[in-house]
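Anyone? Bumping this.
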Amino acid sequence: MLFPRPVQNGPPPRVVVTGAGIVTAYGSGWRVNADGFRAGRTAFRPVTLFDVSRQRSKMAAEADLPDTLPPTRLPARQASRLDRASRMLLLAAHEAWGRAGWEPTENLPLVLGTTSGGMVLGEEYFKRAVGSPRSHRGQPTRALHYQPQTQGRIIAEALGFSGPIIIIANACASGGNALGLAWEMIRAGRAGRVLAGGYDALTLLVFAGFDALQSISPGGCRPFDAHRDGLSIGEGAAMLALETLDSANCRGAEILGELTGYGSAMDCHHLTQPHPEGDASLAAMRRACEVAQVYPADIDYVNAHGTGTPLNDSSEAAAINRWAGSHAARLPVSSTKAGIGHLLGGAGAVEAVVCLMVLREQWLPPETTVETPDPICRFPLVRQPTDAHCNMVLSNSIGFGGANATLLFRRHP
Amino acid sequence: MNRVFVNGLGAVSPAGWGLPALRAALDAGEPLPLRHIERPGWDRPFPARLVPDPSPRPAFLAHARFRRSSPLTQYVAAAALEAISGVSPLPPRLGLIVCLQSGCVQYSCRFYTEVLDSPATASPLLFPETVFAAPASHLAALLGGDPLVTTLVGDPAVFLQGLALAADWLLEGRVDLALVVGAEEANWLRADAIWHFDHACVASAGAGCVCLGLEPPASGGVELSALTDAQTYLSSRSRGRAARLMRSQLPAGSVRELLCDGLQGCRRLDAPELAAWQGWPGPRLSPKRVLGEGLMAASGWLCVAACDALARADFTAATLSLVGCNQQAIGARFVRAS
């Protein structure tokens, strides 16, 4: 039952990650992405998915998806007809599921973060409704499949599990918030395992939206550069298999990392502009550390939201400076959006997987596009591929509307 | 301590702005008059039940955040403000959960039309308002403080997931009061989508808000008694089976227990819910027959109507049935606060 909530005796269980799946413009899967992030490769190219000839910006980080999807319980015909967002989500979920070694089950919650679900289908629905208003053909399917709950059901069907599907749409913090909610559900005793993550596919509506706002960099995304001039859009998905430490140990599962803290906060400053001093971002970081009972000095790396827009990065840098205090000078920070762009609802989840890569493989992802670090950054920006010893890392997500999420991951020996 | 109480209700509906208008329409029991939404490229308009213009103009619309806000945002704010109107002073730690299915379709259509026509001049003012999170953001700014905020998306039964999340926040001591708002706005595109599934379905718009707290109000107290599991639809679990599973998790009911359901007079859409609640022994209330298909807003109205009826009539309990259109069935039960 959703209510009354389960009675919990004792402290909340520890939550670990036993599976992770990732799709970005670097490719599909952990290895190819880890190599891309470690090298700080940039994956931007001219947009091919829709016509951008009349847009100001013409570049994005498109993901090359495989022609065929991995075998699942979906009928081949259905799998072949999936929209782009569903395909990315399925690829990520399948990888996470397989790495976790989970079996089909009941009562497994699925928590997803997205900003626009299958908006490509929504756009097609609109164009057909305007162009052929009397035609019924295909429209019910488009109306159903553009909605994220349908994509969630597809994942459940494909992997053979059932349970509640919860979809968070807190703009670009959605992925981080989805993982945070999954973590809270396990700690509250609502579930022993949760499959969670975020996704978004490139769509004209969203690309044109950022283009209209003149938020897209004409020259390429350079987070925390003194001369940064905007973000770059990307697409992708990431899914994490979360479970209690006891459950993972009982199964003898490989543990990719422990999710030790989550904090969220609301920035009421402006719909699209963060508070200049990063108050909400600071609050989210403090809350995550408080619940994890750690201090900034315990953190070895920060994966910043770092979109590359002047306002976001100055606000977030101020927040990191205030949060880290004197430790800032020794705290490596980077934004992986420099390589794969801003994945919107998928960003927080993809960056969570980057954090797991850092913990597993002990390197720091550089942002190689930075030429002149903004002097506001009192922390060292990671600009070259770097090996490092990391025990605990932090990931920030910040969304339109003011949603802020911070996740804390710890290395599992 | 695992008790959660309804501390306030708010509604914006085709009946008008405010709970009294909703209550009067439901008490009258007659379907509200139909209006029409013009559809581009076709001379056959869609029937709809739309929210009338507010009179007088709500004062909150003067807030800077609401200058360019969508109707959706305005419905959310109006319902939320009404739900907390009896709470004074407002505690600093509020929880705000906004539940949406279609979201801001009016501005999305306008913006996308501009993008297709002339992307270089597409309005940068419209796009941010199209984001699902915009209504919650504006409401948070209006109420101030340091709120805990999230937007949930899905089919109309998500409203009860929102209620469950609000209860968790309260019981974990993270907030002092939690608002759950279900809202939608209407336009030709949303009416078109509904029409494809059932030609008899009438699109409507508005919002419903339930304010939850850990203490009962001074009078007319209603307590959240139960929320069933989310019975997700799968190939192996039809909408009808999910509805039956949902009912099986709730008490059988009695002659003095109200059932508030989502029946709206559309044979195919209603069938699973009708079958699941066959033999219900008590009175029934079907707000969508009066107000139309408001998707997440309708879920808000159903919940508000159930709680309001329980607070002012001689029922012992009220059961709420939300059989969503394409995700899940969830039920709730409210009782009089003792």
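Late reply, but here is one note on the structure posted above: Chain B has a mean pLDDT of 96.
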